[in-house]
Amino acid sequence: IPKDELQGLKYFLKAEEYEIINQQLSAIKKEANNGNSKYQCFLGELYLGGNVEPQKSYEERIKKAEGLFLQAAKQGDSEAAFSLAYLYQRIHLYNDSYTWIQKAADMENSTAMFVMYALYSPSVSKNCRAGGFALFNYTMIPKDDSIAIKWLQKGFVKGDLWAKRETAIRYIIG
Fold this sequence. Notes:
Blueprint: H1 5-33, H2 37-48, H3 58-74, H4 78-90, H5 94-106, H6 110-120, E1 129-130, E2 133-134, H7 145-158, H8 161-173
Antiparallel strand pairs: 1-2
Helix pairs in contact: 1-2, 2-3, 2-4, 3-4, 4-5, 5-6, 6-7, 7-8
């Protein structure tokens, strides 16, 4: 192996991060098993990222993450609902993804509100991404500026920075 201090440091930090996660994993799993939605969501993210049980297949980790996100979302956790929407996008279940984007927005998730705006807005190109979502995958959603504006205003009120930016642009352009 040729000497590469930067690459060595990256591997070291990754191993260090993995070790810290493993040390805390039993406490995280215990809280998740006790029904704590924040820990269920966090553990789901760890599974989705391959940071927990990396020896398992991708499909097994997806199923585990999905179950954890569903448990948390059913308790009203908007981050879990948004994570579930993202998971479904990753595995090409776009109708399910849209359902959970909408649920997350209804649960007051400001990022999901902005994604809803982007999905409905005639002025947002389908070639764009919003909140990590590739909009071209959601062609089943009709463009409707009145629905889009409703979600933009809600996101603005909730403090979403993208919603604030887009509102400013809309005022400038007219």
